[in-house]
Amino acid sequence: xxxxxxxxxxxxxxxxxxxxxxxxxxxxxxxxxxxxxxxxxxxxxxxxxxxxxxxxxxxxxxxxxxxxxxxxxxxxxxxxxxxxxxxxxxxxxxxxxxxxxxxxxxxxxxxxxxxxxxxxxxxxxxxxxxxxxxxxxxxxxxxxxxxxxxxxxxxxxxxxxxxxxxxxxxxxxxxxxxxxxxxxxxxxxxxxxxxxxxxxxxxxxxxxxxxxxxxxxxxxxxxxxxxxxxxxxxxxxxxxxxxxxxxxxxxxxxxxxxxxxxxxxxxxxxxxxxxxxxxxxxxxxxxxxxxxxxxxxxxxxxxxxxxxxxxxxxxxxx
Length: 318
Known about the structure:
Blueprint: E1 4-5, E2 12-13, E3 17-19, H1 29-41, E4 46-48, H2 64-75, E5 84-89, E6 91-92, E7 95-96, H3 103-117, E8 124-127, H4 137-149, E9 156-159, H5 163-176, E10 183-185, H6 199-206, E11 210-213, H7 247-263, H8 267-276, E12 283-286, H9 291-302, H10 307-314
Parallel strand pairs: 3-4, 3-12, 4-5, 5-8, 8-9, 9-10, 10-11, 11-12
Antiparallel strand pairs: 1-2, 6-7
């Protein structure tokens, strides 16, 4: 599998990242191990999680995903050398954390993540959400720099920011002589495009910032398995699909079906392949709860969409 440079981190990664939000939620530890084993067996090598996953599940408090990944790494001899681990700080159940992105909070949170993961260093550490406390970028980036100097993290990234915020962080890093964010994690998929395309995408390309997209399949809508309200019960994420069931969403599914049929692939594989081919995107993040879904990832990585395919998908909602 051909790997891609992840911005200026020095990492080369396979073109799809596993989304670890399912660990401790829709997958227990045994099933998580099976899916992760299959993921690596298919040639993939990067896992994304966060310290808050999966706090939204009744009875959970956050950190369950990191704990399962750590148990898997411990149970698989030599696996740590084969995979890159991404995690995040500064969120709780999908919202900014009350501790913000202050130096004091970050320096404590990273040690908790390292302990749960059972690793000496996190490969890529993300600021999960913009800081609700208004902590200066220089303080946050300074904390990340201290962690890099201490060998606790290797690279830094940011999620859920717009072009103005990312630009301001780059300027603050230059003014303070600090390393800037090297990777962006935005919400981006065939349905949700406006938040990334345009100024933010252009900035990432010009600054050579790696991009790994989340909600790459729009919470499963772009797999094509949700066509009506009656389909919501097909998974634990079904309740979040209603916002996509509109004329625009159905037009996108129709085009996906046509391109998928042409290639003998699934709508999910085509959706992921489209992301892999978008300017500036290093790799989409996608979750899986079965071996068959991992096989879809492999199909997507091998799928070559031509100019006509890309144009049809780009204009699917026109």
